[in-house]
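To: structure subgroup
Subject: Chain for Friday's discussion

All,

I'm putting the inputs and outputs inline so they're searchable in the archive.
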Amino acid sequence: MPTAEAAPCPDAELVFARGTTEDPGLGPTGDAFVDSLRSRIGTKSLGVYAVDYPAAMDFATAVDGIYDARAHILSTVANCPKTKLVLGGFSQGAAVMGFVTANVVPDGVSPLDVPTPMPAEVADHVTAVALFGKPSPRFMKAINDPSIVIGPQYVSKTTDLCVDNDLVCDPEGRSFSVHNQYAETGTVDEGAAFVANKLQAAWVADEAAAAAASGTPQTSSTPTPAPLSAPVSGPSPLTHLGSTAPVLPGPAPLPGPAALPGPAVADTPPPD
């Protein structure tokens, strides 16, 4: 009998949690995010995992999403340690992923009711976190749930995006209709650009480290910005030093070869 082969590890893996009442899968915001991200990472492979949880109006079931996302992240780290993880979520899904990054159990929550925080070293495998419409402290207080605090090891690699006047994520927001307009407003593209830049930087760093370890010149397969087509005009970079660069004398010119004498010319006798 043929045996099933494990799928190869992708260059990057997105773990995304959909929003409240959206159908199982990534949801419209997640689908748009994946399309935008794939268009920005060239030939690099991107795996996608949709967090399995109810996404119900009862936010208490979000704990199921935290358990599921955490389990998948730990499995990926163990089985594909070189894969760059990207965490993302929309609305309630953003809350799920925010809690996944937490380094402590939120105040007022029993440790028996939620999964333990992920080991600190897992953060080294997470390259970026993109949260869309993450519920604000005002919103979480209204539904009697703790505020979402991103773990300190993830803060610098997280983009937390909120459309203006969104009732869910904007502390002063009053509109629920704009909460479903993250693709239309370009906010999804903004998040994808942030994540793509983080991934590209990580891949370039990996290639440089591999080249240094092997002693071979680096030949990056990751796209880099094109050089400027013309030099930038302006003052010399040394202007701020108050002086110009000294002109060093060059070496004395070498003497040329001595001129060789030409052939002797015989005297011609005068005519008779």
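Points worth raising on Friday:
The chain has one domain: 12-213.
The first strand starts at residue 12 and ends at 17.

D.
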